[in-house]
Design brief:
Elements lengths: L1 E2 L10 E6 L2 E6 L4 E7 L7 E6 L4 E7 L4 E7 L4 E8 L5 E8 L4 E8 L4 E10 L5 E10 L4 E10 L5 E10 L4 E10 L7 E10 L5 E10 L5 E10 L2 H9 L4 H13 L9 H14 L1
Parallel strand pairs: 1-4, 3-5, 4-6, 5-7, 6-8, 7-9, 8-10, 9-11, 10-12, 11-13, 12-14, 13-15, 14-16, 15-17, 16-18
Antiparallel strand pairs: 2-3
Length: 281
């Protein structure tokens, strides 16, 4: 895995350009890249990523700097974006535009502290585009986390899936705001949402607000939202096997959040996420 910002690249593979506060990274047609992007190394706060036709790109995004991202996936391109937010909180916006048969897989591991504000818009502009979104977060103490994720299906036979998992402790707050829109003439499309928040304490606040906006008949659409306390049966079972209540809660939380690790490929990043979860539990 290479450093996308700081290593010298063959211009046939990637082009970099700067215009005022905007950095553009263009990945060429048929290119294959496996790299990481540390936003703290970037002087610009506006970052544009363009994946040309049939490019196969994997990016691990790290760093705590606030930034706005604009991502364009052209025909038959694939992007796996692994976002790792483990330190200070962020205010970030992401806009994705998927063209014909483009594929996006985005995994967001958010275990930072403080006030977090994430706003994501994924537009499936052309037929056969697919987008998968997976997020896991933990809020404790006085953390305030708002995650807004929206899908816009603009063409036929497009697919989106959203999975948000959170754990809320102490006096913290988590808000999952999800909107899936299937526009008129976007037939044969499918949009699915799943939001789940486990609440530990009386003072914490959690909300999961899924919205479906459907303007076409021949589609599939579903949403599920669950906000609730830790499962008492699971807690009782673990305590009956000799665990303390605190250890039992910790084990349940790890089982709830650890699956996000499987979406990351780099072993060091996996370990960093696992350690961050353990530290916050």
């Amino acid at each position: 895995m290479i450093d996308i910002l700081n290593e010298n690249w063959d211009s046939k593979t990637i082009k970099k350009s700067v215009n005022n506060d905007k950095l553009t990274l263009s990945f060429s047609r048929n290119s294959t890249v496996d790299g990481y992007l540390n936003v703290d190394d970037c002087a610009q706060s506006q970052i544009e990523i363009i994946c040309d036709e049939e490019a196969n790109i994997k990016i691990v995004q790290i760093g705590s700097k606030d930034a706005n991202f604009n991502v364009i996936l052209k025909e038959k391109s694939c992007l796996k974006l692994e976002i790792c937010s483990l330190d200070s909180s962020n205010k970030r916006g992401y806009k994705f535009e998927l063209l014909d048969s483009a594929n996006l897989l985005c995994a967001y591991a958010d275990f930072c502290t403080g006030i977090e504000d994430i706003d994501v818009l994924i537009s499936l502009k052309e037929p056969n585009a697919r987008a998968l979104w997976h997020l896991a977060t933990l809020a404790g103490k006085n953390d305030q986390k708002t995650m807004k994720v929206s899908f816009d299906h603009c063409a036929v036979n497009t697919y989106s899936e959203m999975n948000n998992y959170g754990v809320c402790k102490d006096a913290s707050k988590i808000s999952f705001l999800g909107t899936s829109k299937i526009e008129n003439k976007a037939s044969k499309s499918a949009a699915h949402q799943n939001a789940r928040i486990m609440v530990f304490d009386e003072k914490c606040r959690a909300e999961a607000d899924p919205i479906l906006c459907i303007d076409e008949n021949d589609v599939e659409a579903s949403h599920a939202a669950v906000v609730g306390k830790i499962n008492e049966d699971h807690l009782f079972y673990l305590c009956s096997r000799g665990l303390s209540e605190e250890d039992a809660k910790r084990l349940i939380t790890l089982g709830y959040l650890n699956p996000i690790i499987e979406y990351f490929d780099d072993q060091r990043i996996k370990e960093d996420i696992a350690n961050a979860i353990i530290k916050k539990v």
